[in-house]
Amino acid sequence: MLNVGLIGNTEILEPYVTTIKKNTEINIIGKASIGTSAQLNSFHFSIPEFNRVELIERADVILMDNSTPVPFKFMRDIIKKSKHIFCAEYPDLTIDECTELNKLINESRSVVQVSNPYFFTPAIQWMNKNITTPAFIDYSNFERNAAETNSLFPMLLMLIGSTGISPKKIGTVTFPGYNNSKFTNVRLEFGDASVVNLNFGSLESLKNFKVRIYSDNQFATFNFTKQKFSCDNNPIDLTGYSDVNELDLFVDSILGKVKKMSTLEDFLIAMHVAQKIDKKIAQFSIH
User: Fold this and answer.
1) How far apart, in whole angstroms, are the C-alpha atoms of residue 202 and residue 199?
2) Burial, 267: exposed, middle or buried (Cβ in 10 Å; 0-12, 13-18, 19+)?
3) How many CA atoms lie within 13 A of 129 on its CB side?
């Protein structure tokens, strides 16, 4: 049985707590919360409150958001105690800080997993198992918040099982539009000749999330907004690809039942790629 401590904003962590309570391998022992909840039936009032130091000492696992003021020091202290971390949001680290934490993880054998919501969906699981490479993947996300800086991370981490996240070449272009709209395209070229187009931003005329995949004798379209998925004009049978719960996989990886996925090392690679993308966008932005 793993003892779990919650640290952060309870409104952000609540969906994870709802899920984590179903896992018989874990026990939520307390929280060190930031903020409060106006809902009387919220878990905020049903889980004991601890100071942060005491909670870390008692817990085997820390579930955290991104509200900690100095995340590097905070995560370093937890990892040094050989404890495990699930990041519900992308930690606000520099590349040097993330590199240092990964060195400590290798020494302590802690498991640190970063949220990767798209990767564990049935459609992406199907893609990782069935699509052959090289492939051309066109990813377009214009849903709410898609224009935010952190939107690059779920897009990049989603590719771990297909093309990987270490492109040989990166190209970018971004266009501002009317009423604060924005369109950004990122082209990633990989060593196996696969190409990934990332299109994202904020457009009034588009409020959808689609992925199109073209490979040898396979043309697939995923419409996540409408939950419609097809390959070669035929609906894809996803009955064998249920949603994988990130927290269940995290717990199983701590217990040695499955290999680690969406690790802080993966996040570090994504940080390097995102940094290159940001530099190119700044360099070639059209004003």
Assistant:
1) 10
2) buried
3) 11
The confidence band for 283, taking pLDDT boundaries of 50, 70 and 90, is: confident
- Which residues have CB under 8 Å from 41's CB, separation 6+? none
Name the region of 190 (left: φ>0; alpha: ψ -120 to 50; beta: rest): beta
- Please count the other Cβ atoms lying within 10 Å of the Cβ belonging to residue 166: 13
Q: String of b and e for 3-26 (b: at least 16 CB within 10 Å)?
A: ebbbbbbbbbbbebbeebeebeeb
Which of 28 and 242 is assigned the larger pLDDT? 28
**Nearest-5° Cα angle at 240, 208 to 13:** 55
* Pairwise pLDDT comparison (208 vs 63), residue with the higher score: 63
Q: pLDDT (tens digit, 9 = 90+) per residue, 40-78?
A: 455 555 788 999 999 999 999 999 999 988 999 999 999
List, in sequence order, every beta strand (DSSP E) within 157-286.
Answer: 169-176, 182-189, 195-202, 209-215, 218-223, 228-231, 234-235
Q: Is the dihedral of CA 51, 56, 61, 67 positive or negative?
A: positive
Q: Which of 13-27, 218-232, 260-274 has the lowest mean pLDDT?
A: 13-27
Q: Hey, what are 134's tokens?
A: 């090289």
In sequence order, what are the residues at sequence separation of 6 or more whose Cβ sits closer than 8 angstroms to the Cβ of residue 19? Answer: 245, 247, 248
